[in-house]
Amino acid sequence: MEEIGNRREKTVGENDYADEEQRAEIDMWRYFFGFSEMAALKCAIELGIAEAMEAHGRAGISLSELATALNCSSSYLYRIIRFLAHLKFLKEKCSDATNGAKLYTLTPLGRLLMKQGERGMAALVLLETSPVMLAPWQALSGRVRNNDRPAFEAAHGEDIWDFAAENQNHSKLINEAMACDARMVVPAIVNGCADVFDGVDSVVDVGGGDGTTLGMLVKAFPWIKGINFDLPHVVSVAPERNSVEHIGGDMFKAVPQANAAFLMWVLHDWCDEECIEILKKCREAIPKVKGKVIIVDAVIEEADDEQDKEQDDDNYKLKGAKLMLDMVMMAHTNRGKERTQEEWQYVLDKAGFSRPRTKSSALPSVYQIPSCYHALIQFELQSKQNLLEFVMAKIRLPKDRSSVVNLTASHFSLAPSA
Ligand SMILES: C[S@@+](CC[C@H](N)C(=O)[O-])C[C@H]1O[C@@H](n2cnc3c(N)ncnc32)[C@H](O)[C@@H]1O
């Protein structure tokens, strides 16, 4: 610390602290009003902004043209458009042909706001911003502080699946959101993990929703016969799909027989004991030799955030998405959660997929399916001696955006108690 006249100069440490405090205040504005981002996306989707812009052509659309196409007020629309441009969903440019009027185009991020099409993710936004899904967030602190009723139950009096069974509109929102996630993830599985489906004649998709996932898998691997298994109220309205049979039932009671059981975004809805029950039912459904269980779910890394941030910003964002999903599980399911590798290992061991005590005790690395926060875990019943192959898919998306798969395998034995 140095004194110059009466003025005291700040030390380097004090300056750093002041900078950090100032940055904290700026950062905090995002959290005060963070909900407005989600609300603006919902508004854009309900208005059909992305569809109107796409229909107009990629050269760009002016505000007045967009207001006419959407039949709405330009002054309000301008404020939404300006915010979406700030969030990088749209790009604005000036054009000579329009006397300097701004033209707007969709960015790749903006195209994800479409309701239809392979890359449209609007359904996920519409589900998460629905009043039904927003209400449980008000009960989150009660759940944490007093281990009160699950937040969804506190808000709606029953769990999400019973609620969906009684409210077809909400069930439709869930199924459409899941289908839109599947349209993003399944191509990455098909491109990155085709080997997993070699020699598999039939797959039962447990908690398969409206069958979008299986429809895509059987199209990519036409030798597979698909069984889409979900609650009766879900499969009764699922569309017909080639080579896919819909079966209604309860995975806690029995799972239809197939060569492989596939579970995507299902186990994270349940606590460890429930996952173990589901996995045991899956094991009963597959052949003792060469039967497979394939899990697609998130794996939370315990790595240090700052390090991730420096190393690869996309990894940092994907980790953030997984942690947000964990919050969503706390708000929307009774006891579901996202799991670390160690937590997965516990569940898998207890379900009877345990590793023999060999010198290689470290778990294989888990990497994400490109651009997603899902990892793929595969077990194969290998031989009559009940040897299992446990593979975690390591899939990287290099800078050229082509998928490269690197599977790390180690052997696991079936626990005698299972
Ligand atoms: C998060 S969604 C995943 C849907 C699909 N696997 C996907 O990724 O698109 C969970 C699914 O589990 C289903 N489910 C919930 N309880 C079930 C049960 N007891 N038996 C069978 N399916 C169930 C739900 O209806 C829902 O479709």
Sheet with the most strands?
9 strands, mixed
CATH class identity of the largest domain: Alpha Beta
What is the CATH homologous superfamily assignment of the largest domain?
Vaccinia Virus protein VP39
Count of DSSP-assigned helices: 18
Give the spatial strand order of the biggest sheet: 8-7-6-9-10-14-15-16-13
- What is the CATH architecture descriptor of the largest domain? 3-Layer(aba) Sandwich
Global mean pLDDT: 82
Report the C-alpha radius of gyration, rounded: 25 Å
Terminus-to-terminus distance:
67 Å
List ligands, each type once.
S-adenosylmethionine
Percent helix, as a range, is 40-55%
Q: Low-confidence runs (pLDDT<50, min 5 residues)?
A: 356-371, 381-418
* Overall domain count: 3
How many E-type strands?
16
Category from helices, strands and their pairing: alpha/beta
Strand content: 15-25%
- Shape label: globular
CATH topology of the largest domain: Rossmann fold
